Amino acid sequence: MVSTTTDAREAVRLMVERELPALVVRGDARRPYSVLPAHLVMSFIVPEYAKDNPALARVVDEKTADTIARALDGRTVGDLLPHRDHLTAVPRVNHDDTLLEVAAVMAGSRSPLVVVGQGDEIIGVITTRTLLGVLFPPTDALPSDPSAADLTS
User: Fold this and answer.
1) Structure pTM?
2) Which of 84, 91, 113, 114 is paired with 104 by a 20 to 30 Å CA distance?
3) Strand order across the beta sheet in which 2-3 lies
4) How far is the C-alpha of 122 from the C-alpha of 133, rounded, in Å?
5) Which of 69, 57, 55 lies closest to 9 in space, CA to CA?
6) What percent of the chain has pLDDT over 90?
7) Cβ neighbours of residue 56 closer than 8 Å, sequence gap 6 or more
């Protein structure tokens, strides 16, 4: 998890290094507050004119495009989040939920991740990539019992 005061560049680096589709943002009480999906980061750094008309992005050369990342300079994770009224809730599953229950929560919440709880404690996060990797493993690595897989690592 990151906080709303975490440097935005550091948060994006974490996303990239760990190949995460999103980050869990904790609030003041160190509890999950919101989800920061990668598409929100992209929306923040892409200029409005390019979002309104992607064809205009073609006229920007790669050297100039490299400066787009500067949009994160001096910004925090909180700056990247939408207004409070539009925050993405943090979906939660229990540590003993089945794969189908986890998939159902992800699908229903349209979230690329869920937090895993045991009682009041957060014990991990499951990403769509991890869940799909367990549901659809490479053919040479099929487990005998996919429900026994540890998704929170």
Assistant:
1) 0.76
2) 84
3) 2-3, 22-26, 32-37
4) 22
5) 69
6) 50
7) 49, 50
SS (H, E, C) 71-131: HHCCCEHHHHCCCHHHCCCCCEEECCCCHHHHHHHHHHHCCCEEEEEECCEEEEEEEHHHH
Residue 144 has pLDDT above 80, yes or no: no
Contact indicator for 109, 102 with CB cutoff of 8 Å = no
Name 114's Cβ contacts closer than 8 Å, sequence gap at least 6: 90, 91, 92, 93, 102, 105, 106, 125, 126
Q: What is the mean pLDDT of residues 133-139?
A: 88
The answer to whether the Cα torsion of 77, 82, 40, 108 is positive or negative is: positive
